[in-house]
Amino acid sequence: MNKHTPGDSGLFYCSFDAAFRSARDGGLFRQIGQLYRADGTLGADWVHLMDRLCQAGATNLNLGRLLEGHANAVQLVRLYGDKGQQAWLDRALRSDLILGVWGADDADAARVEVVDAKPTMKGAKRYASGLGMVSQAVVPIADEAGHLQLYLLPVEAPDRQDASVWAVSGMQDSASGRFSFEDMPIEAGMVLGATGDYKTEPFFEGGIWRCAAVHLGGLEAILLMTIKHLDQSGRLDHPLQSERLGHGIMQARTARFWVEDAARRIEEPRSDETTEFAVAAASYTRLQVEASGLAVIEIARRAVGLSSFRTDHPLNAAISDLSVYLRQANPDALLLHKVRAMLRGFAL
């Protein structure tokens, strides 16, 4: 299934600028958006989306992050948008606009208040990826009762963006940061779907397979760069290096099998499969890919040694990015809360 393996281009892991320019010139954002059907599902096209997300992660994880967010936003508009929003999305994709989903609240949480008898946005979102690149974002906002309502909002205004708060060691090129919605009026066409739609499964937690697919591309690229380094340095056949690579290959293949299984269960389920188990499997996929990614990173560092820490080495860039990107929210809760569903899937 992996028709586009990391390293097809010979670059393995390239700069974000080069990766992003190639993606835009090649219409990759449009192509990914158009994989989704009018009802928001992928069906058998999950294979093509997984391939593209894996390849993006292998090329540059920051690009993969933007593509995954774009795919997520497109799906949400297809699932819950009205006719006008669907037509807008068609035009946006033809124009190669980039969309995102910004869910994490700032300390001053994004919210809707009534100002002069008009609904008005207040507060901000943090960890908003693609500042300066994303044109429209799907933004979940909690009401006073904690129920989430989706909004489709313009996010191009430079004076609302603050990338300085993204002070981390990797994923710097994801252009993540804080976006202020303070005093933005809620206009016609901005409300997306009904209250509570956002958490509908299998497309809420189940959609984590897309992030895992990007992570998978990154860890496969790290493994291939490690192999290339050892080959070029004449150490590929050393018994200890062979042992390390053997473990790395097992980790990479394990991660790939989990991602393929989760994507298929979420996007193309069989009649005898439950949504509960599919969502749990997707959640556990995220955890397995994290474990596999961390294992491959350690293998790469030990196999390559000090050279892997050189700031100009693509292996160091890929490891730094993946180390940050793997850190998704609340992994312990996922492990505990989904175990019963997993057990039921095994008829236990």
UniProtKB/TrEMBL annotation:
Highest taxon of the lineage: Bacteria
MF terms in GO: oxidoreductase activity, acting on the CH-CH group of donors
Protein name: Acyl-CoA dehydrogenase
Lineage of source species: Bacteria, Pseudomonadati, Pseudomonadota, Alphaproteobacteria, Hyphomicrobiales
